[in-house]
Design brief:
- The chain has 177 residues and is α+β, with helices and mostly antiparallel strands.
- The chain has a single domain, classed as Nuclear Transport Factor 2, Chain: A.
- A six-stranded mixed β-sheet has the order 2-1-6-5-4-3.
- A hairpin with a 7-residue loop joins strand 1 and strand 2.
- 16% of the residues are buried.
Length: 177
């Protein structure tokens, strides 16, 4: 009886291990959770370094598909929906006096539907003094695809903020002392 239990346990461990190893591949449109997590980690790092300056914003093309669309849920009569071109201009010009840093606190990935949800903390610092201007929470809903070169790309982002009215204050020019 002990041999049968040991054998069954060994077989189950081998099946689980084999599944875990093969699940870490991106093959013809199928993406593993680990690949998405790695992609998102790299995305946030790259965004924080390069995603808000006109000279370097195009580095984000590594993550955004050409058909990328963004909906930002601000307290406006109509939620702004932006294509890639508009999104880049928004990021570079929306709050020129502040730089934002995004910290991913939690990430949930659904590889079957090629989606991810992240709970983020966003810090806005004054570009000239580095003083903290605002810290808030948000939720990002992401859709992905695997492109012809077998690379993961974001196709859609829906962005929600804990206090959208507070976020709108950053659009105003920096106060002059």
């Amino acid at each position: 009886m002990k041999r049968a239990t040991l054998f069954t346990t060994l077989v189950l461990v081998l099946f689980v291990f084999a599944g875990a190893v093969s699940a870490d591949e991106t093959v013809k449109g199928n993406t593993s959770s680990r690949k998405v997590v790695e992609f998102m980690d790299n995305y946030y790092d790259t965004y924080n370094k390069y995603g808000q300056d006109a000279e370097s914003i195009d580095m984000m093309d590594e993550y955004w598909a050409p058909e990328f669309m963004v909906v930002v849920y601000f307290p406006l009569p109509e939620y702004p929906t932006m294509d890639l071109f508009t999104w880049k201009h928004f990021l570079v010009g929306a709050h020129t006096h502040a730089i934002e840093t995004i910290h991913c606190e939690e990430l949930s990935v659904d590889t079957e539907n090629k989606t991810a949800v992240s709970r983020i903390v966003i810090e806005f610092h004054d570009r000239s003094t580095d003083a903290l201007l605002l810290k808030t929470d948000g939720i990002g809903f992401y859709n992905f695809k695997v492109d012809k070169k077998n690379r993961l790309k974001m196709t859609r982002l829906r962005l929600y903020f804990a206090d959208p009215a507070l976020m709108m204050q950053l659009s105003a020019p920096a106060p002059v002392n």
